[in-house]
What we know:
The protein is of the alpha+beta class. It folds into two domains: 4-208, Alpha-Beta Plaits, CATH 3.30.70; 213-250. The chain contains eight helices and nine strands. The strands form four sheets. It has a three-stranded mixed sheet with strand order 8-1-9. The chain is elongated. The mean pLDDT is 88.
Amino acid sequence: xxxxxxxxxxxxxxxxxxxxxxxxxxxxxxxxxxxxxxxxxxxxxxxxxxxxxxxxxxxxxxxxxxxxxxxxxxxxxxxxxxxxxxxxxxxxxxxxxxxxxxxxxxxxxxxxxxxxxxxxxxxxxxxxxxxxxxxxxxxxxxxxxxxxxxxxxxxxxxxxxxxxxxxxxxxxxxxxxxxxxxxxxxxxxxxxxxxxxxxxxxxxxxxxxxxxxxxxxxxxxxxxxxxxxxxxxxxxxxxxxxxxxxxxxxxxxxxx
Length: 256
């Protein structure tokens, strides 16, 4: 399957929030109004410079979250999605610190916390459907397709109306490229986008640093795994003791 992507045309967005509602339905998230990415909002629509701007995980081609995770809890798929595997996560939150777009969100209030973020509707695109958010957009402000196709559309749109659009496709080259692309009639820095990220693949920088301290990384990973194991083992023991007490309470004769 070819790499997929999403093109967001900020000039067309009317702020209807249909993409947000569709995302919440698709991912069984609470139907609450939110203005910032959170554990219950994988995409939001912000208002900047009298424009509506969608925010979501950018699904980097070379994800830094994947490169810094010591246990391989993140995966970049051939479809272009960056996925999180909760069963591997040890809660170190390196992904949150490393992400240039601040996409991952952590369940701080949960007893078994996980990272939450957009999944690019991987369960839909692997069976030939488009993402829920793009399907819901009533004005074509958000379109889905093969990455090369939407990149071509973005380039054609910008070149066809040079007096309207900023001569830049955000996400084409930032940090090595992302699966989510933006075009706009307002300079991206005025809309809150980071425009100083450069074009270098960030994992090259993380590997350059980590490769100089392999023993520290190995020990650190082992230590983090050990902490994770101990924490989960304690939870198992507490749960076992609770069940034993309940059993003794319900069946007092068993003690004799």
